[in-house]
């Protein structure tokens, strides 16, 4: 595999904003693109049920449901949408796949599709159509959902970038005009913020999206869960260096991060308990659209930056990937494909991206031109999240083992144990090695 170079918290006037932006043309395509065709014939009397992760920005769900309504009005196909937290979608999807009952279409995260690829409808025709029409899929999309290089087991939906979110005034008060681009400077910044009484904090609990910074930490120092042959290599000198760095970083975190799930850093940041964290654009979105004048005022002080580059000398970005799976037990596979085709077309997808305010990073190259990335310069840091992301199964091949290891939070647990002092780095690495080897069986 080649080297591939988050939330419901506050809801305000975002619904109005979403309605205002939905349907406004955002991307200009060449006429030839529209020559692509795909003939799908939805089954007579089809009804669909969709299970998807809960929104963290209100504009996402408002625009998504508006598009669902458009689909029903156009096709007569009734669509029911159920929303669950990221942590709940994964087990429900697995149960559905293994029992053969549940939602027809499931929107999940990362490489969940690789846990039960034989339970999913082949989406190759649809993905080929969309790829040709919209400039092609990013490499990470293929790594996640086309693991054998031939068959697509799901349709990429995009992702949400995990970037550094910070209070500009607090950084400057600590002596930094910007987030350092190297790990040494990054550590100095966290120490300076703690000394100023404005600490940072990043999730160390089982947070599906926000604990992903632990993957960055390992990769930044040259460590990896597995090598290109899927041999487990997490117990290594490179990982040890990463954990030793983490042990210096962690004392500068606000208390409580060991139990943080995905909503916790949003709340802590908007409550001014922390000055810096890693997150999607949802914190900034919530501040801009808040009904609370104090929080709304905070938006001007929020900025974003990429993670620093470690000793490996190149970006090692980890972002949350979104997939769309059609379950093989569905009675209406053609209707399900037609629903996904409709939702991915520019007339719907472009407006959805705008309504989400930068929370959704596109999986198809043509959507780089969506105006959401230029309407506010603070959005731009998130544009290339899917383009640059490195799957959690790096540097090996994605499949059941990588999906299982990620779902089991092996890397996150190792980092939390080592940097908090509950285990020595060596003990944490050895435990992670053994846990991972249960999935990556020789």
From TrEMBL:
Pfam assignment, any one: SBP_bac_8
Lineage: Bacteria, Pseudomonadati, Pseudomonadota, Betaproteobacteria, Burkholderiales
Keywords, comma-separated and alphabetical: Signal, Transport
Protein name from the UniProt record: ABC transporter substrate-binding protein
Family per record: Belongs to the bacterial solute-binding protein 1 family.
UniProt entry tagged with the keyword Plastid: no
Record-linked InterPro entries: Bact_solute-bd_prot1, SBP, TAT_signal
Location in the cell: Periplasm
GO CC annotations on file: periplasmic space
PROSITE patterns in the cross-refs: TAT
């Amino acid at each position: 595999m080649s080297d591939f170079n988050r939330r419901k918290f506050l809801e305000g006037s975002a619904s109005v904003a979403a309605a205002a932006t939905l349907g406004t043309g955002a991307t200009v395509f060449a006429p030839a693109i529209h020559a692509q065709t795909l003939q799908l014939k939805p089954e007579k009397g089809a009804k669909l049920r969709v299970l998807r992760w809960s929104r963290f920005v209100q504009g996402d769900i408002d625009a998504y449901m508006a598009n669902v309504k458009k689909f029903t009005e156009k096709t007569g196909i009734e669509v029911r949408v159920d929303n669950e937290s990221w942590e709940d979608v994964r087990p429900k999807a697995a149960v559905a796949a293994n029992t053969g009952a549940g939602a027809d279409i499931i929107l999940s995260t990362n490489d969940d599709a690789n846990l039960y690829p034989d339970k999913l409808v082949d989406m190759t025709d649809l993905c080929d159509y969309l790829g040709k029409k919209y400039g092609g899929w990013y490499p990470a999309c293929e790594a996640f959902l086309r693991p054998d290089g031939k068959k697509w087991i799901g349709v990429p939906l995009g992702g949400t970038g995990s970037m550094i979110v910070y209070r500009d005034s607090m950084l400057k008060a600590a002596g930094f005009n910007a987030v350092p681009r190297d790990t040494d400077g990054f550590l100095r910044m966290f120490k300076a913020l703690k000394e100023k009484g404005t600490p940072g904090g990043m999730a160390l609990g089982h947070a599906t999206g926000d604990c992903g910074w632990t993957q960055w930490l390992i990769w930044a120092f040259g460590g990896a869960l597995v090598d290109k042959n899927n041999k487990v290599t997490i117990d290594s000198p490179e990982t040890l260096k990463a954990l030793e760095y983490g042990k210096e970083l962690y004392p500068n975190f606000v208390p409580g991060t060991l139990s943080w799930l995905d909503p916790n850093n949003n709340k802590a940041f908007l409550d001014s308990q922390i000055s810096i964290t890693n997150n999607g654009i949802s914190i900034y979105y919530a501040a801009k659209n808040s009904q609370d004048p104090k929080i709304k005022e905070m938006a001007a002080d929020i900025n974003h930056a990429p993670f620093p580059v470690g000793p490996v000398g190149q970006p090692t970005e980890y972002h949350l990937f979104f997939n769309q799976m059609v379950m093989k037990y569905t009675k209406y596979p053609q209707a399900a494909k037609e629903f996904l085709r409709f939702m991915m077309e520019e007339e719907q997808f472009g407006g959805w991206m705008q309504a989400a305010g930068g929370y959704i990073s596109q999986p198809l190259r043509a959507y780089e031109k969506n105006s959401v990335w230029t309407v506010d310069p603070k959005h731009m840091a998130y544009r290339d999240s899917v383009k640059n992301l490195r799957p959690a199964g790096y540097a090996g091949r994605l499949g059941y083992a990588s999906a299982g290891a990620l779902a089991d939070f092996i890397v996150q647990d190792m980092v939390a144990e080592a940097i908090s002092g509950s285990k020595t780095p060596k003990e944490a690495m050895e435990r992670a090695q053994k846990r991972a080897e249960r999935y990556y069986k020789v």
